[in-house]
Design brief:
This protein has 94 residues and is of the alpha+beta class. The chain has one domain. A hairpin with a 4-residue loop joins strand 6 and strand 7.
């Protein structure tokens, strides 16, 4: 199982990125939580990014992510990409 953290709460997926549990706030009084519609997270894209930027395969897939690291598909099939600079800032900051 994989845990994905966000300011809205936590999502748990299976090893393929398919959502199996959500512990999320439904809204913050102003807007509806966009993660309520998340259906599957793009772990394969993350692994490909990691290999490209480190020239090595991740020997163990991480089991904990920040929501900004991963792209995901909504229930309606729309793809939401990972934050464009978050990974570089977190993995390669000097």
């Amino acid at each position: 199982m994989i845990t994905i953290e966000s300011s809205w709460g936590t999502i748990t997926t299976d090893d393929n990125g398919i959502v199996i549990e959500k512990d999320l706030l439904e809204n913050d009084g102003k807007e509806r939580c966009y993660l309520l519609d998340a259906e599957r997270f793009d772990l394969e894209e993350w692994c490909n990014w990691y290999e490209k930027h480190t020239d090595e395969e991740p020997f163990v897939k991480p089991i904990h992510f920040d929501i900004l690291e991963l792209g995901f598909w909504n229930k309606d099939g729309k793809y939401v990409p990972a934050h464009p600079t978050w990974r570089d800032e977190m993995y390669f900051k000097s």
